[in-house]
Design goal:
Blueprint: H1 3-9, H2 31-39, E1 47-53, E2 55-56, E3 68-69, H3 73-92, E4 99-107, H4 115-128, E5 130-141, H5 148-152, E6 161-167, H6 171-177, H7 183-195, E7 200-207, H8 214-226, E8 231-236, H9 258-274, E9 278-280, E10 284-286, H10 291-297, E11 302-304, E12 307-309, E13 316-319, E14 324-327, E15 330-334, H11 338-346, E16 352-357, H12 360-375, E17 377-379, H13 380-386, H14 398-406, E18 410-413, E19 416-419, H15 427-431
Parallel strand pairs: 1-4, 1-13, 2-3, 4-5, 5-6, 6-7, 7-8
Antiparallel strand pairs: 8-10, 9-10, 11-12, 14-15, 15-16, 17-19, 18-19
Helix pairs in contact: 3-4, 3-11, 8-9
C-alpha cells in the first residue's frame, strides 16, 4: 500500500449508500409526496423493510447514529406503539400488500424494546405485508444488554441474520470509547443466536479509534475469527465532533493519524484474507459460502442504507424516527427526534420531513456509483445504454480523473473504468467523480480513507 499516494488523493466523500445522498435531502419533500410515491408502487415488485429504534442503554462515545440513552420501559413501550401505527398508515397508502423478502432492525439498540414488543411489531408487519416464508429477518444485537432469556425469547420472530457491534476487543480502546464488551460476553450472544436459528452473523469492527495499535488490532481480528462470524464489516471511525457533540468526550490526541489509519486497515485486510474471508466492496469481508460472497461473485452485489447487501429490491420502506426509505421516485426520511416522530404519527399523518426526487440523471449516475462501490469497475457505455442513452453522457472532473490515472489508481479501457488494486482504498473518492451534487467543501462527509 502506497500510503503517500493515497493521502495525496484523499478527500471528503459520501459513503454512497444512496444517490443522491442524504446531504441532498430537503424539506421540500413531505408526507404528501411520500403518500403519492407509495400509491404508485408496483404491487408485484418486492420491497424490503427497515425499522429504526433510536434508543440505547448507554452512550458509546464514537457513535454516529441517531440515538438517545433511555433506561426506562415507558418510552420504549410507547415507541413500539407508534411503530405499529406507522406500519398501518404506510400500508393504507399502498395499492395492495407488497411482497417482502427482507426485514432489517437497526438503531440504536432494537432490543431495548424487549422481545415481546419486537414480536408484536413483526406480527403486524406480517399482517400488513406479504412477507415471504423464507424472508431474511435481521437484527442488530448489543451483547451487553442481551440477557440469555432476551435472545431465546426472540425465537418466534424467526431471525435469520444478526449483526453484533464489537468495534475492538482491546480493553484500553474499549475504555477510550466507553464501550466495554468482553470476548466471553460476545461469545455467549453468538451461541444463543445460533441456538434460535440465526444462520448469518456479522461483526462490526472499527479502525481509527483512540489508542489502537497494530498489535492490539491484530489480536482483535484473531479473537473475532475464533467466534466464527459469517461476515465482518470493517469501518473507519469518522471523528466529526462538530456534528456529534458526544464525540468530544474522546481524547482526539489519541486518535491514529491518517497514515496510521491506513496501516490499520491494510493489516486487518491482510489478516482477514489470510483467514479465508472474501473481500466484499470497500469494507466488508465474508466467508466464501455466505450469501454476500456469492452475490459478489455473480456481479449481483448491491449497496443501500444497510451497506452492502444481496438484496435486489429497488424499494426500501423505512419505519421509525430518522428512518430513510428509498422508492423509485426518490428518497424520504422521517423526523429524527423521537418526540417529533411520535407527534406526527399520532396526528394521523406520515412522519416524512425531508427527501429528494430522483431524476433520470440521478438514476444513471447512481448506477455508475453503485457499480464502482461494489465491483470497482463499471462499463459506462453499458450503463448509458441501459438508460436509453448514447455513451458519453458524463460530465466528470477530467483533471482529477487524469491524476488518478497518472498514479495508477484507476485504468480506462474504452468505456470501462476500473479502480486498480492500489486505488481501492480511494473508491469513494473515485465514485465522487460522478457526483454532480457534491460540494467541494462538503465537511459533513468523512475522509475517503
Amino acid at each position: 500500500m502506497d500510503v503517500e499516494t493515497l493521502l495525496k488523493h484523499d478527500c471528503r466523500a459520501p459513503r454512497y449508500t444512496s444517490y443522491p445522498t442524504a446531504a441532498q435531502f430537503t424539506g421540500e419533500i413531505g408526507p404528501a409526496d411520500y403518500a403519492g410515491w407509495l400509491g404508485r408502487l408496483d404491487p408485484d415488485a418486492p420491497a424490503s423493510l427497515y425499522l429504526h429504534v433510536p434508543f440505547c442503554r448507554s452512550l458509546c462515545w464514537y457513535c454516529g447514529c441517531n440515538m438517545q440513552v433511555v433506561r426506562r420501559r415507558r418510552p420504549t413501550d410507547a415507541y413500539a406503539d407508534v411503530l405499529l401505527r406507522e406500519i398501518d398508515l404506510v400500508a393504507e397508502r399502498l395499492p395492495s400488500p407488497l411482497p417482502v423478502g427482507q426485514v432489517h432492525w437497526g438503531g440504536g439498540t432494537p432490543m431495548t424494546l424487549g422481545a415481546g414488543r419486537l414480536i408484536a411489531v413483526v406480527e403486524r408487519l406480517r399482517r400488513r405485508f406479504a412477507i415471504a416464508a423464507d424472508a431474511a429477518l435481521a437484527l442488530e444485537v448489543d451483547p451487553r444488554i442481551a440477557a440469555p432469556a432476551d435472545i431465546l425469547d426472540l425465537r418466534p420472530v424467526g431471525l435469520t441474520h444478526a449483526s453484533i457491534g464489537v468495534q475492538d476487543f482491546d480493553p484500553d480502546v474499549q475504555h477510550a470509547i466507553n464501550r466495554v464488551q468482553s470476548v466471553e460476553t460476545t461469545r455467549r450472544a453468538v451461541g444463543l443466536l445460533r441456538d434460535i436459528g440465526v444462520r448469518d452473523i456479522n461483526f462490526d469492527l472499527i479502525y481509527g479509534l483512540p489508542g489502537q495499535t497494530e498489535a492490539g488490532f491484530a489480536r482483535t481480528i484473531a479473537q473475532a475469527h475464533r467466534l466464527a462470524p459469517d461476515r465482518i464489516a470493517l469501518f473507519g471511525y469518522a471523528h466529526v465532533p462538530w456534528m456529534k457533540r458526544h464525540q468530544r468526550l474522546i481524547d482526539a490526541e489519541r486518535l491514529p493519524d491518517a497514515a496510521a489509519r491506513l496501516r490499520l486497515f491494510a493489516l486487518a485486510e491482510d489478516l482477514l484474507l489470510d483467514l479465508g474471508y472474501d473481500k466484499i466492496g470497500i469494507d466488508h469481508f465474508a466467508r466464501p459460502d455466505s450469501e454476500l460472497a456469492r452475490a459478489a461473485r455473480r456481479g449481483r452485489l448491491r449497496r443501500n442504507f444497510q451497506g452492502y447487501t444481496s438484496d435486489a429490491c429497488h424499494t426500501v420502506l423505512g419505519f421509525g424516527a430518522s428512518a430513510i426509505g428509498g422508492l423509485p421516485d426518490g428518497f424520504i426520511q422521517n423526523a429524527a427526534a423521537a418526540r417529533d416522530y411520535r407527534d406526527r404519527i399520532a396526528g394521523g399523518g406520515l412522519a416524512t420531513v425531508r427527501g429528494v426526487v430522483r431524476t433520470g440523471d440521478d438514476r444513471l449516475r447512481g448506477d455508475v456509483i453503485e457499480r464502482l462501490m461494489c465491483d470497482f469497475e463499471v462499463d459506462l457505455g453499458a450503463v448509458c445504454r441501459a438508460h436509453g442513452l448514447a455513451p458519453g453522457q458524463f460530465d466528470v472532473d477530467g483533471r482529477r480523473l487524469d491524476a488518478f490515472r497518472a498514479d495508477g489508481l484507476v485504468a480506462v479501457d474504452g468505456d470501462v473504468l476500473r479502480i486498480t488494486a492500489a486505488g481501492r482504498p480511494l473508491a469513494r473518492a473515485v465514485a465522487s467523480l460522478f457526483d454532480t451534487h457534491l460540494a467541494p467543501d462538503a465537511v459533513r462527509h468523512s475522509r475517503a480513507v
